[in-house]
Amino acid sequence: MWRLNTAFHDTLRLGLKRLYPDSNVERLLERFALIAGRYNFLQDQCSRDAPYWNEKSGLLVTYGDMVTRPDERPLKTLYGFLRDYLPETFSGVHVLPFFPASSDDGFSVIDYNQVDPDLGGWEDIERLAGKFKLMVDLVLNHVSSRSKWFE
Predict the structure, then answer these.
(1) What pLDDT digit, counting tens, does each position of 117-145 carry?
(2) Which of 9, 23, 33, 46 is the most exposed place for a label (fewest CB within 10 A)?
(3) Do 25 and 17 contact (CB within 8 A), yes or no?
């Protein structure tokens, strides 16, 4: 089942043993492999020779609506701004919660399966990810009282 290179697997095992000494590390590795394998993320994009992030990486942290233009969805505007003005400055962008939310600056998420329509749609997120390394928040500890998860 393990699809990642052996050196990474062994390094990850050692790190997990240090972080979670009382846990079933083999089970953690198996779950990690399932998640990573589902998206082929680590296999395709990470290695010791070509890490996804390093000391040369520049990462912009922003809300999805920090750059706006009349009559254009903010995530599309953000993409154009980064592409046109900052492609050599930032290799990645961390878009703070872009899901529909009820409060807490977007951290009280209502639905993790949708992009807030006031910001854009999944095609805008995919466009960003096609040009920049993308980081997003899972935000499991800030769910909205109006979400299905809370109910």
Answers:
(1) 999 999 999 999 999 999 988 777 777 77
(2) 23
(3) yes
